[in-house]
Each structure stands twice: as C-alpha cells, then as structure tokens.
C-alpha cells in the first residue's frame, strides 16, 4: 500500500494542502501529494531534531536518497513512490536541491540579512515546491514558472508569520536581521517581558510586505492548486493581521469549512484567455 497517495500525512483532510490538491486534476493528485510529502520530510527535520549535528546527518541522508532516486535505486518508500513522477513530468533536480538547502539553513538557524533575503529564502523553499507542482501540470513557460515560484514565496512568508511563536521559541528566524537590529531585538528571547510588545510592529511590517508581494503576482493563469493555496494564504493573512491577533502566543488558522469554501470558489474561476 502506498501511504503517500492523496490524501496523505502531507495532505491531511482539513489542511490547506488537502484542499489545494483536492481540486487539482484527478490524475495528478497522487504525484502532487508525493511532492508535498518530500518537501515536508525535509522541512520537518529542523522541527523535530534539536541537535544540529544529528539534523544535518538526517538531511544529508535525504540528499543521498535523492541521488539514489535519480539513479533509479531509491530506498525510502516515499522516494520509491515519487521516482516515477520525476520521469513522468520531466522534473529537474534544482528545485529539490534548493528545498534541501533551505532546510539546512533552518537547521543552522541562519537569519536572512534583509527583506530581499527573506523573500529569496521562501522562494527557494515553498517557491521551489510550487515550481515542481506547476511542472506536473505541464507548465514549461519560464515566465509562468517564475510567477509560480514567487507565489510560493508569498505563501511561505504568510506561513512564516503564522508560525512566528513556534519559530521564535525554537530560535529560528521570522524577521530579517536588519529589522531586528533596528528594533533593538537582535539576540533577544521571548522570555524578556518587553519583547512581545516590541515584536508587534515587526509583525505588522512583515505582513504588509507579504501582502504587497502577493498582490503584485498575476496568478490568474497558474494551475488551480497553486491559486487555491495562494487564496487561502491571503485569507489567513487577514486573520493574522486582525486587531486582536496574537501570532506570538497563538497559532491562528482558518477553519476547514472556510478553506473548503475559498478553495471551491477559486476552483470555479476560469483562467483568462491570453491573446
């Protein structure tokens, strides 16, 4: 039995990932879910392994496993399930490798230097995943792939804010280093009583920048699963920036019914006809 078929642990019912794949073409859903599973396996390493050395060895194992997958000798059940999709959709290695590189940056708690670095980091992670998902839909146009990566970067920025409390408690980056320095928060911890109050302007600024980033992307002719994920990120960003929202102490999320409604609405929207 292939545990990585849709729905899977990477696309559990009720999640944004589930609803984005649920409205994709039926013949693609399993391959899309396996790609999300591969990215989740790497992204989970800094979440679940506290020792950087152990985490690095685990990531190196997955890098070796990817090489094994390319050579036709995968060992892990996920790799064996995913390997045919690489050939079926002619998926390039580069996006897989950038996702691994971002997991390594998280393991070693590297902080992006500035806002541009934050955007680049998310495009190398979630953006690389979105590129792979777009390629599974047959997207080969370079301009569309650039927009897919940028859209993934936007979703990654929103999820970074959603997970701000957990990330900060784990010593992982939420904001750019120059913003932390300007706010006098570089090297501080959540245990300091004034830190939460002083984080509020950083959250607001990061949310505004993420919103501007997302608005500037024309996603109208991208695959529906990417558009749904972006629409859910837009709705989540509204919740994260509500006057009473507290992203440091509370994990804010949309309800499954809300996700279903917006996913269905986006799935009904027809892409524009380009001339």
Task: Please give a structural write-up.
With 275 residues, the chain is mainly α. The protein has helices at 16-22, 29-43, 45-48, 52-70, 77-88, 93-107, 115-136, 142-162, 164-169, 177-182, 195-215, 224-240, 256-268. α2 (29-43) packs antiparallel against α7 and α4 (52-70) packs antiparallel against α6 (93-107). The termini are far apart. The mean pLDDT is 94.
Percentage of β-strand residues: under 5%
Q: N-to-C terminal Cα separation, in Å? A: 46 Å
Structural class: mainly alpha
- Find the CATH superfamily: Farnesyl Diphosphate Synthase
Please state the average pLDDT score: 94
Structural domain count:
1
Main CATH class: Mainly Alpha
Protein name: Phytoene/squalene synthetase
InterPro entries: Isoprenoid_synthase_dom_sf (IPR008949), Squ/phyt_synthse (IPR002060)
Quick tags:
Isoprenoid_synthase_dom_sf; 275 residues; mainly alpha; Farnesyl Diphosphate Synthase; 65% helix
What are the SSEs and their pairings?
Layout: H1 16-22, H2 29-43, H3 45-48, H4 52-70, H5 77-88, H6 93-107, H7 115-136, H8 142-162, H9 164-169, H10 177-182, H11 195-215, H12 224-240, H13 256-268
Helix pairs in contact: 1-12, 2-5, 2-7, 4-5, 4-6, 6-7, 7-8, 8-11, 8-12, 12-13
Compact description:
The chain has 13 helices and no strands.
